[in-house]
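Hi, can you check this record?
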Amino acid sequence: MFSLRHGAAALVTTALVAAPVALTAVPAQAAHRKPCTITAAQRAATIDQVHALQRQLAGHHLTASERIALHAATAELRKALRDGHLTAAERKAKRAEYVALVKKLHAAATPEERTAIRSELAALRAEFVAGRLTRAERRALLDEIADVRRAFTQRPTKAQRAAIRAEVRSLAATLRCTTI
């Protein structure tokens, strides 16, 4: 007699017998990939190349004297960034003039004097606004400072980092090959 229990056992037995056949079919599908081999000398050279690229990504760590030189190189740019179109002395003189006009406004007796003083105050405020850097000018100065810093530290730009990382990935794929 054939029972369900015997049928299940027969199914399991068939699966176990057929399993080696099914497992040998998987490498046949993988045969579409090209076999990848690399010599020991190629592996060593690739590892050295990966390490060089990683050092390039890290950049150069500045010594104390190099940091001082970087600070001196960017000082002029940072001063321009801080001052804008008005130097500190010009800004201080205009501020003193503004304070004097405000005092003069409080002491003015006639409406005509007050109107004239208010127009002078508005002109001074406009000069203060014109003395500030625009966003584009500020961005350009910040980019220039970053370029100087990048030149000192020898760190790659964002696009260069992406290219270096892509090259490291391709070299890592090469290192996954079988050594012969």
